[in-house]
Write a structure and sequence with these properties.
Elements (H helix, E strand, L loop, with lengths): L1 H18 L6 E11 L6 H11 L9 E7 L2 E4 L4 E4 L17 E4 L3 E10 L6 E2 L2
Parallel strand pairs: 1-2
Antiparallel strand pairs: 1-6, 3-4, 3-5, 6-7
Helix pairs in contact: 1-2
Length: about 130
């Protein structure tokens, strides 16, 4: 269950970041991440695992929003970046050349953390 370890690491990192700030009257409402399709973690499985690992933490009841980053390779023949349609073959969709240099699609990064004051419906952007 790769998604469980990813969810646990993500939750621990966010908890560490908010612990360093003076946010005693605020709760995490939303964590937004950007995740490359080549990470090998299904979005639904990650969201389910995240919901499970945040129980009993400062993140309890926050939502996880995932922006999936499509894989992009650099084609040595076309000399430009190309979005690929299939993860099965790393080939340029224009000329068909092998394109082993992946430019995007492997990342897993936190885009933002939204906080809300305890007892209020509004959210504040933290990072």
């Amino acid at each position: 269950m790769h998604e469980l370890s990813v969810a646990r690491s993500l939750a621990e990192f966010v908890c560490e970041q908010i612990a360093e700030m003076d946010l005693t009257h605020e709760r995490v409402a939303l964590v937004r991440i950007r995740m490359g399709e080549l990470c090998g973690v299904p979005v639904v499985a990650l969201k389910t695992a995240f919901s499970a690992v945040i129980i009993g933490t400062p993140l309890q009841n926050c939502r996880l929003e995932v922006e999936v980053v499509e894989p992009v390779v650099f084609c040595p023949h076309c000399h430009r970046e190309q979005e690929i349609a299939s993860l099965k073959e790393l080939k340029c969709p224009v000329c068909g050349a092998r394109t082993p240099k992946v430019v995007r699609g492997r990342e897993l990064e936190i885009a933002s953390i939204e906080m809300r004051e305890v007892g209020e419906a509004g959210a504040n952007l933290v990072g």
